[in-house]
Each structure stands twice: as C-alpha cells, then as structure tokens.
Design a protein that fits this description.
721 residues, mainly beta, eleven-stranded antiparallel sheet, eight-stranded antiparallel sheet, 2 helices, 53 strands
Length: 721
C-alpha cells in the first residue's frame, strides 16, 4: 500500500531542506491555480477533469505537461535571495531515476479554457532540471533550484507583477520511462527574500523643518537627534546618522541598533563644540537590517545660531511705566523693540506674569511689534508687572525684561459682555486655531480696535508631539460668565473623548483640569455653542448621529440629551429673542436644502420647525455662522462658502445673498468688530504660507466687500471648528 504524505507533512519536510540567510523571509505557498494539457487531446481543457494527479511526460495515455500559477504580490520590490520549487512524485513509469524540466511560463486563467494547442506559446524558458524516481510504496520528494529561477522571480518582484507561472515537462516527453505522476497538493514554491529597510524618519530632538542648501533651517546647535526606523519584514535594524559640513565632508557619524521597526530612538549626544556658530551643515540617515541597507533620508540643511538676542526695549503711551493713563478693561498697546537696532528678532513672548508670559507676537521687518494689553482688576488694584523677552528666528530667547509696570485708571463703566470678546474690552475679537508640523496646535487671537485690528498674537501652544491628529473640533464662548470668551476643545483620548476648556485671562489662554471624559464619536459629531439655558454662561451642543447633547456652562461636566432627530449641520443663536439660544439645523434632503429651528425651553429643545427650503446652496458646501447681522437683537443664520454669504434673518428666514465673490477660507466667525450694533463676518485663511484675516462689514441688509484686517507668517494652517 502506497503511503501518501499530508500537505502539512510535506511542507515540514521541504522546510527542513531550507536554510535561509540571516535577516531573510522564507515564504512557502501552494499554487493559486494549476492545470495540465495532453498532446493526444490537443483541444481538451482540464480545469474541471482529471484533477486527481499532476502529470509530466508519457503517462496514462499521451504526453502530459502541467502548469502552475503562484501569487507573488508579497514579493513586490523585494530582493530575491533564493527560489525553490518542491513537489512529491507519486509514481514513475519506470523505477529508474529520470529527469523533469521546470519552465517559467505565462499566466493561466481558470476562467478561460487551456489546451495543448493554446498553451504552446506559454512555455518561455527552461529554468531548472530535477531527477527522481518513485517505486514501491514511498513517495519521493523532488526539488528544483537554480540562479535562473531566482532571476525570473526577481524580475517579477522588480516589475511588481502579481503572479508568476511555472510548468513541468519530462526531459524526454515521448519516452514512457520518464513519465511521472505527482501528488497535486504537494507542489510548493519557496522564496527566500528580503526587503531593504525603508527610509528612516530623522530630526533633531526638538523637531525642525527640513531645510535646503539654499534655505537652511536656522537653529541653535542641536545636541541630539532622534529617529524612527521602518522595515517591511519587521527585522531588527540599525540606523546610521551622518552629519556633513557645507563642503560635503562628514564631520560625524553615529549608529544606533539593533532597534525594532517603528520604535523611536535617539542617537548619543553630539560632542560639545562640534557644530560652529554661523556654519551650515546637513544631516541624513540610513537603515540596515544586516542583509540590505535602505536609502538615505532626505538631506536636511541647517545653519547654527548660538547667540541669544538681548532683552527687548519697552515703550508705551497707554501704559507709561508705572503711571495709569487709560481705564482698566480697555485695550491699550505696548511697543517692543530689539535691544540693538538690526538685531535678529523674529518675535516676542510677553505677559503679565513671568511664569506664564508665553503669549507670542511676530515682529515686523524692523524687529518691532505693537502688542495689545488689557489690564483687569486683581487683588491689589488696576496694575500689574509686564514681562517680555525677544525670540530670534533660530528660537533662541533673551532674558526677560521685567522693569515695566502697567497700571490703569478706574473703569468708567463696566464693559458689556459681548459674544466673541476674548480680552473683555466689550468688543468682539477673532480667535482661531492652527495646525503645525510635528503634532503641534496653537490658538491665535486678533484683537479688534477702532478702524481695524491689532497684530495677531499666539495665546496658546500645545508644543511639539502633542498628537494634533487627536485634536477634534472646537467652539468658542463665555463659559464661566466673566465677560471673556474661552475655547472648548474636544480631543480623542484612547476610545473616549475629552472636553478641554481653555480659559482666558484677557491676555493669554490656559487649560485647567479636564472637566469631562466620555464616549463621543468625533468623526460623526457636529458642535456649536450658545447660552441655551439663559444663565449668562455659554453651553456646548454636540450632535452625534441624530441626538443632541448639551454640556451646560456651569461646569460642562454632565451632558444631557436635549433633542433627537437632528442629522444636519447645526448652529446656535437666539432666534426668538427670549434670552436663550436656540438651535438651527441646515440639512440636505431629497435634492433640496432646509433650515429648521428648535426653540430652547432652558432644559430641552422643542420640536423642529421648517423655516426655509430651497436650492440656493447645499449644506455640505457651507460653514454655518450665527450672528445678529441686521441688529434687531435676534440671531440670524449665515451660510458661508468660498463664493457667497447667504443670510437667513430671524424675521422670516428667507435666503438672501448678501455678498457674492471668491474668497475660500476654512474658518468663518462673526462678531461686532466695529461696535455699530450689527455683527460682521470674518474669515481666516492661509495663502502662500501667510495667514490672512478678512472681514465683511454688515450694513444691516448686505455685506460690504471683504476688507483685509491682518496678515503675517504664523507657520501654521487655520483649522476649521
């Protein structure tokens, strides 16, 4: 009785014959398709018949040839080290050891008939020869291996083809002594291959942009570099850092490894004094798995600046040193200048407390900056210290100039609480968030003034590697009722979402402990803010799926369901003038767009009322803004796109185009920037690497042409709320 080995046993047998080189993957696979053809029946296809045996040569009547197709998608781009084909001979027509040829063949398709006649052109190249005999009750392994086999598989890998064909023919096809029957499930292609490591990620420990030879990144002398290696085969790898000077001479190399692919690591600190002030260098890295070395990373150029700027000079007519000149609660300005004219000053950090003097303003070409400052009452009266330090383009900072006192007169009247007023001076401002490289997020504010806006200031900075991809939508509002607008930011945290309140002190933003963490799918949620319960504090509405949750402004820690059935975009405004913000929904359905409003009772939203339906715009194409643009004391809905501003006033909610043109922007907001009692529209966008603020002034029945309010380099991109 003949003993038939299982495929698993056969595969184990084959693998014992293989000794892969170090750091190589050995992949074994059965064919994804196989068939055979017969010379005596040249027009017969065998895709569905005679499947019990694979034949080669004269056996069981006529001359047979067999063809196999293997999946090679996993080999795309790899270096092929060795190729073998193994099979088991079930029987030979004679007991003598006879030869079998292995050929590289064209592709075969089980969906198309394949015959002796139609297969004639598929036989490309003979790549190996093997010999075996099988007599009695034992099956005989037969293996093929040659450099020519490796070459044809390498070509397939280089071309990233998805498959390769091999075929079997007897050495002397018409001699019955050479005919062989083969166990069908025993045919196995074994490929030893290796993928060279991918390009590693490399940067200074404090990440910087990759500069070019013509425009190197200016930075303090880096002391250490960090990296992350990549390898498709998950081999342990070593990564080499190379630093070269402007002449191309290597001044430093360092290798770290072995490390596991994907894990972060740092090279040892550079020798002290290696990098000289004012000199230009480049760095790059490459990774090796011990068998192959991957390509270098991009060559990044930098110039060393190790000189700190001097303390800035301070001057002000609104805040003479220690002398009050303007009332508290109003916005004045302070001018910051380089310690020495012509110094390299990129901007300034400033504030009213040294440990939190982190508000940043970009300097002009002359190194000067005029910053808005609002003095609020504290425990000792209307005054405070003012701290400022200069920052050069490399990021070097000066010592603080702390020799300036700001003082203010008693306020004439309390400033009114208005929407969007970050500094509490009674006038709306423009606050927006920006995304930067290396996982950094910042919040900027552009303070409104008579006739325009002050220079934009950066009030909040998450720092690098803060995971900006985890930061979701944000909304603005006066959540604690102090007359100053804050920012509520939602952030992914594992499987949950965190709500973060970033509070304003009038001149900067800071985040206290997180008030709420829970399940809230950010990818499906829409957010807005308004005083839904009429207590003088803004609340947050989150529409997820069709349910609307409200986080009340008292502590924002206990969301409750106020409404079901909302699927469109949402915005909040006091549309009925009762002192409580209501909800508006703009929805696309059945080829038209609708506006619905849901009145607030203070504890829930009422039934929806369709206020308008039409085709003036699609909800999917607009950003919604709620603003009292006609000055009647009730909120209106503004649908803003890159080509027009459509207004639905609370009087009748009809769609009226108040402006049309072209000004695409990711961020739209509203506020009464000029104190005329009618709220205006503002947009923030980035053009040519510079951030721009534009405003549309409301006349009460239309918007004027967009007017530029501020523009500067912020090294970021505005993020939609």
């Amino acid at each position: 009785m003949r003993r038939i080995l299982s495929f698993g046993a056969l595969l184990a047998l084959f693998l014992t014959l293989i000794t892969p080189p170090v750091q190589a993957v050995s992949h074994s696979a059965e064919p994804v398709a196989w068939t055979q053809v017969n010379e005596l029946r040249p027009d017969t296809s065998y895709w569905e018949t005679d499947r019990g045996t694979v034949r080669a040569g004269t056996i069981d009547g006529g001359v047979w040839r067999s063809l196999f197709q293997f999946d090679t998608r996993h080999l795309a781009g790899a270096r092929i080290i060795k190729v073998s084909v193994y099979l088991v001979v079930d029987r030979t027509e004679s007991c003598d050891e006879t030869s079998v040829q292995l050929w590289n063949t064209g592709a075969i398709d089980p969906a198309r008939p394949l015959t002796w006649r139609t297969s004639a052109d598929l036989w490309r190249t003979q790549v190996a020869t093997g010999a075996a005999q099988a007599c009695g009750e034992f099956n005989t392994p037969l293996g093929f291996e040659s450099d020519q086999m490796r070459q044809v598989v390498q070509r397939v890998a280089d071309e990233r083809a998805g498959s390769i064909g091999f075929g079997l023919r007897a050495q002397q096809e018409h001699d019955s002594a050479y005919g062989k029957a083969i166990v069908p499930k025993s045919v196995v292609l074994v490929v030893d291959y290796n993928n060279a490591p991918s390009v590693p990620v490399v940067n200074t420990s404090y990440p910087r942009a990759c500069g070019t030879a013509d425009a190197p990144t200016v930075m303090p002398p880096p002391s250490q570099f960090s990296g992350r290696a990549k390898d498709l085969d998950d081999d342990n790898v070593s990564t080499t850092l190379e630093i070269r000077d402007a002449a191309g001479t290597t001044v430093h190399t360092s290798t770290v490894g072995p490390t596991t692919p994907g894990s972060a690591f740092s090279w040892p600190e550079l020798p002290a004094g290696l990098l000289k002030h004012g000199e230009k260098y480049s760095y790059r890295a490459k990774t090796s798995d011990g068998t192959d070395t991957g390509p270098y990373s991009a060559e990044c150029w930098f110039q060393v600046d190790s000189v700190r700027p001097g303390k800035p000079q301070i001057s002000s007519t609104d805040y003479p040193n220690g002398e009050p000149a303007i009332p508290a609660g109003t916005t004045g300005t302070i001018t910051l200048s380089p310690a020495t004219p012509g110094d390299d000053v990129y901007g300034y950090q400033f504030g009213l407390q040294q440990d939190s003097a982190t508000t940043f303003v970009k300097a002009g070409q002359d190194g000067r900056a005029v910053v808005p400052v609002t003095v609020q009452r504290d425990d000792v009266g209307w005054w405070s210290f003012f701290y400022a330090r200069a920052v050069d383009r490399a990021g070097n900072v000066s010592s603080y100039n702390n020799s300036w006192d700001v003082a203010a007169l008693d306020p004439v009247t309390p400033q009114p609480h208005v929407r969007g007023d970050l500094n509490g001076d009674g006038r709306a401002d423009v606050t927006f968030m920006q995304r930067h490289d290396f996982g950094r997020m910042t919040i900027w504010n552009v303070t409104a003034r008579d006739g325009g806006f002050h220079a934009g200031t950066q009030l909040y900075d998450t720092g690098i590697s803060s995971g900006s991809e985890q930061w979701g939508p944000h909304v603005r509002g006066d959540f604690n009722g102090d007359g100053r607008s804050e920012v509520v930011q939602f952030q992914r945290s594992g499987d949950n979402t965190r709500l973060i309140v970033i509070q304003s002190d009038g001149n900067r933003l800071g985040a206290p402990p997180v008030p709420w963490t829970g399940a809230l799918p950010l990818d499906q949620a829409r957010f807005t803010s308004g005083d839904f319960d009429g207590d003088g504090k803004a609340d947050v509405a989150a529409a997820t799926g069709s349910r609307v949750l409200v986080f009340r402004g008292a502590d924002l820690s206990a969301p409750a369901t106020w409404l079901e059935g909302v699927t469109g975009k949402i915005v909040a405004g006091d549309f009925d003038g009762d002192g409580k913000a209501d909800l508006a929904e703009v929805r696309d359905e059945n080829g038209t767009t609708s506006v619905r409003t849901y009145a607030s009772s203070g504890t829930a939203f009422g039934a929806g009322e369709v206020r308008w339906q039409g085709g003036d715009y699609r909800a999917a194409d607009v950003t919604l803004v709620a603003a009292d643009v006609d000055g009647d004391g009730r909120g209106d809905v503004v649908a803003a796109s890159g080509t027009k501003l459509v207004v639905h006033t609370a009087a009748d909610f009809a769609a009226r185009t108040w402006w049309s043109g072209a000004l695409a922007a990711p961020v739209f907001t509203a506020g009464d920037f000029d104190l005329d009692g009618k709220e205006d529209i503002a947009a923030v966008r980035t053009v040519g690497g510079r951030t721009q603020l534009w405003t549309w002034k409301s006349t009460g029945s239309a918007f004027g042409s967009p007017v530029p309010g501020w523009e500067d380099e912020t090294r970021g991109t505005p993020a939609a709320s």
